[in-house]
Amino acid sequence: MSLVETDWLNQNLNKVKIIDCSWHMPQTKRNGLEEYKNQHIPNSIFFDLDANSKKEINLPHMLVNQNDWAQIVSKMGIKNEDEIVIYDNSDVISSCRCWFNFIYFGHNPKLVHVLNGGLKKWIKENKEVTNDATNIKISDYKSFEKKDLVKNKEQIDVNIEEKNFKLIDARSKERFDGKVPEPRKGLRSGSIKNSFCIPFNLCLNEDKTFKSKKDLKLIFETCLKNINEKDIVFSCGSGVTACVLALAYSLINDKYHPCIYDGSWAEYGLI
To answer: Quick one: 196 exposed, middle or buried, by C-beta within 10 A (0-12, 13-18, 19+)?
Structure first.
């Protein structure tokens, strides 16, 4: 159950830990934290995707080490046995990146969910929002890394020739084909050799809910021989929308363990 619906969350507000992981592309000039302070789902905790990423490297959204992750989650008051629902108010469905991070650092995947439709759907249905601060009791979270869920640049380069896994890029077709410049400075246009492209928004309805399993199967079948393949790695611009595809694929293949190229084009496309 990677996705939960708004009605389910509304009935379980006091039984789960709720995380707001709203993050916006830099060019939007929007600030997820300020929006959270203005209004959020009751009892939710803000997760800052930029602040909670690796500081020692000049690449966006790279995973921290397991000790830093344990400290981050402990300060959020989340325990290892907690059931978690993550939402966002973002056009790039940034909650999926937080979902991936929890799975990578060992939280039970059956206990980590994304709210289908996010805050937009919640508000449209006139469900309760607040600007009250959430009371947090610091926990003692334990984490461990599932390192097989992430690929690095060297593994991506080797795979171009050996083809051990399929690499699917979540960016737009125009960016993938190198027809438009990248939104981040210092990056060339184009894509990784022998990779495929499934723009992440193809998996979403207009209201930012995920499409049906039937529709998702049709989308992934454009580059997969069958939707039971396990050796699939997702990439994007900076490791956010790759996780949208990873979640979408996990909805139609329950044996799939989400795997991403963490550096994505922000690393591979460096000039």
So the answer is: middle
Instruction: Please give the model's pTM, rounded to 2 decimal places.
Output: 0.96
Beta bridge pairs of residue 261: 151
The torsion of the CA quartet 138, 143, 149, 155, rounded to 10 degrees, works out to 110
Number of alpha carbons in the 13 Å side-chain half-sphere of residue 35: 16
How does pLDDT run across 142-201, given as a tens digit for each residue?
Answer: 999 999 999 999 999 999 999 999 999 999 999 999 999 999 899 999 999 999 999 999
Of 3.40.1170.60, 1.10.630.10, 2.160.10.10, 3.40.250.10, which CATH number belongs to 147-268?
A: 3.40.250.10
* Active centre residues (catalytic): 236
- Paired strand residues for 187: 270
- Is there a shared CATH topology between the 3-124 domain and the 147-268 domain? yes
Q: Where are the domains of the chain?
A: 3-124, 147-268
| CA-to-CA separations, 128 to 40, 76, 81, 95, 243, in angstroms, rounded | 9, 22, 26, 20, 28
**Overall fold of domain 3-124:** Oxidized Rhodanese; domain 1 (3.40.250)
